């Protein structure tokens, strides 16, 4: 039987996160965004609710909830601002779930446990100055020396680069083997010394209260035990991490659509022109109807992915569609929300201009709109199919 109802645990989680966001984040986000100020306490605040461990088993320091719970949290966080969802997305979706899938038991104890219990923050360094969509053309190298690797290279546009304790980075162990020459490594900032440097990227269009930066690795020596998976598994690991990250982005973008809808409905019922509420005009209703429809579709798409994750089914195709649909929907909703608000929407007095600026990056990261369009076209035409993988995210099992 198909059942989309939330469990009592999930309802309780949503209520707790919504209440926390309204108290802790909502009152300060407009000022932080305007000042480009990154609140260094964001992760500690998320950790105070247990969110870094939301979908990991208790034996790894987690809360043992299912993958839908993670999506629901992301929707709530981004309802207030994309920055809060981003911190959890990268930490849990891109890195934590990647380790849960690919790391050895020792490595999980070493990195996943402190991450899930909220003691350490992680970031994900895949993109380079000359390699974004074309991941396999990355130039960072990891040269083997005895039982160590020497890493050299630069990562850019890494969310939380400047604040993270741990970094999952990708580098070529064989520069002639294309994607098959990429390997994955965990870095612990404290252990890296001066061979690792990070710096923020300033003056960004949106998510201005966030931390996005570059990672520089210069003759950085790390032990072989920091490699995740086998040599040459890096590309597969990066892509499987993206299946999780994209899920959190889709769920988060659903939160932006809901925020735009709520703000627009409220304003449309307050603002009067020509003697009546603007909500009475069909052209305004058209914009609001589209937001309402897109909220429903975006949510159903991420719920379906959550169900596939919970059951252990491969979902690369479905999560690509969910991510692409929801991020476009969020941008369209924000654009229309400004229209509903007229000139006031163009000012920082209302949150909708911030939603529009925030909604732009999620269309670019974790696969651009064009990359996802190509994927969807190829799946539909039968040129691409999801085959069994070397490792998959463990299905949900109650603790
Ligand atoms: C705010 C923000 C946060 C980010 N966080 C992270 C992070 O935490 N970790 C990380 O590793 N990266 C991160 N990124 C980087 C992001 O993933 C890349 O920007 C993205 O993958 C696109 O790469 P690119 O910018 O190099 O664009 P390019 O790959 O250079 O693409 C430029 C344009 O060409 C198009 N294009 C490229 N190839 C094709 C093709 N084959 N067919 C059609 N069109 C094509 C693209 O769609 C795009 O429109 C972040 C980016 C932003 C903006």
What is the CATH third-level topology name of the largest domain?
Butyryl-CoA Dehydrogenase, subunit A, domain 3
Q: Tell me the name of the CATH class of the largest domain.
A: Mainly Alpha
User: Can you count the beta strands?
Assistant: 10
Low-confidence runs of at least 5 consecutive residues: none
Class by SSE composition: alpha+beta
Quick one: overall form?
A: globular
Topology as a string of helices (H) and strands (E)? HHHHHEEEEEHEEEHEEHHHHH
N→C terminal distance: 24 Å
Beta-strand level of the residues, as a percent range?
5-15%
CATH superfamily of the largest domain, please?
Answer: Butyryl-CoA Dehydrogenase, subunit A, domain 3
- Whole-angstrom Rg: 21 Å
Which CATH architecture of the largest domain would you pick? Up-down Bundle
Overall mean pLDDT: 97
